[in-house]
Design a protein that fits this description.
The chain is an alpha/beta fold and 323 residues long. It folds into two domains: 142 residues, Glycogen Phosphorylase B (Rossmann fold); 152 residues, Glycogen Phosphorylase B (Rossmann fold, 3-Layer(aba) Sandwich), CATH 3.40.50. It has twelve helices and 14 strands. Strands 2-1-3-4-5-6 form a six-stranded parallel sheet, covered by helices on one side. The protein has a six-stranded parallel sheet with strand order 10-9-7-11-12-14, sandwiched between helices. Strand 11, helix 10 and strand 12 form a beta-alpha-beta unit. Helix 1 crosses helix 12 and helix 5 crosses helix 9. The longest helix has 18 residues. The two termini are 22 Å apart. The relative contact order is 0.14.
Length: 323
């Protein structure tokens, strides 16, 4: 008799930096065990979502009507982001401990309410139920890259090699992309692409400041390649699949980890600001032979693609079997 389908919920506030890791880990678990994945996007009434988790004692009542956090409960609850904490810490009780609770990222609270915390190594999260990984879980697989590259082959196939995928982040608590920094970055990218005789595939995040996006688009628009303006289907995974090298701004651990899963050289572009946490993350990537600082030129090297998402999924299955 075959295994019954596991029911997995991937829970987040819908922001890409949380939704992607939650769904990526759920998909990786489903590659190990047959599963039905449901994404759950939560939202809180009024300003409750901005409060610390311990000031939200009745989270079911505080959710918006379209959040749909109701039984029957899943076999595995995978949540990412601070907004999910009031629910994650209670789902074991609600499900009478039938639900395995996995929290992505450092919850910055005692780890006891969770069966497993999958936290970035650079967060240095303590606890016996903590699995520390380089970066964060993601949705990049060889199959997805091949499929997306084929889907966008008309636009990307003719591009000259080496193809540089440029993944631009933006403003965060510790980083920013000022107009001055954007202009310097545009100059260095132009030098690298012209010097190599290649092409560019550039995309921006929701956090990219409008002025920085305008500067980069204007100054690099004459180069061979594609600059995605946010209209139509998102070519992000196709860019990763087509790239000979990938440039990532230093503010995004998610994008750098996704780039590291390709096996292509990863260049880290300097931004305004910084923190010890991100410095530790980039040092980890450098020690693994994955990433190097971007200095305005392109060169090639090889490494084994980073497979931390699969390692985390295997740990989820191990914990499930012992649950």
């Amino acid at each position: 008799m075959g295994l019954s389908l596991l029911r997995i919920w991937a829970v987040s506030d819908g922001r890409a930096g949380n939704a992607g890791p939650a769904l990526g880990l759920a998909e990786a678990v489903s590659r190990l065990r047959p599963a039905e994945i449901t994404t759950k996007t939560i939202a809180w009434q009024g300003g409750i979502g901005r409060l610390p988790w311990f000031l939200n004692p009745f989270p079911k009542q505080a959710l918006t009507d379209d959040s749909e956090i109701v039984p029957p409960w899943p076999d595995i609850w995978i949540a990412a982001g601070r907004a999910t904490l009031p629910l994650s810490i209670r789902i074991r009780r609600w499900s009478r401990r039938q639900c395995l609770v996995v929290q992505i990222q450092d919850p910055r609270m005692p780890p006891s309410p969770f069966d497993l915390i999958v936290a970035p190594k650079h967060d240095r999260t303590p606890g016996e139920n903590v699995l520390s990984i380089t970066g964060s879980p993601h949705r990049v697989t060889p199959e997805r890259l091949r499929s997306e590259l084929e889907r966008f082959s008309t636009h990307l196939g003719p591009l000259a090699h080496p193809r540089l995928a440029v993944l631009i982040g933006g403003k965060s608590k510790v980083h920013n992309l000022s107009p001055e920094r954007a202009a310097c970055l545009a100059r260095d990218i132009e030098s690298a692409v012209r010097g190599s005789g290649g092409s560019i595939m550039m995309t921006f995040s929701r956090r990219t400041p409008p002025e920085a996006q305008r500067i980069l688009s204007a100054r690099l628009g004459h180069l061979p390649g594609v600059i995605w303006d946010g209209e139509g289907d998102n070519p992000y995974f196709a860019f990763l699949g087509a790239a000979d090298a990938i440039l990532v701004t230093e503010d995004s651990a998610n994008m750098a980890t996704e780039a590291a899963a390709t096996g292509r050289p990863v260049f880290i572009a300097k931004m305004d600001g910084g923190s010890l946490k991100f410095r530790l993350f980039h040092e980890d990537l450098e020690q693994l032979g994955i990433a190097r600082p971007f200095a305005g030129d392109l060169h090639a090297w090889g490494y084994a693609p980073l497979t931390e998402t699969d390692r985390a999924a295997a740990e989820v299955v191990r914990r499930l079997d012992g649950h």
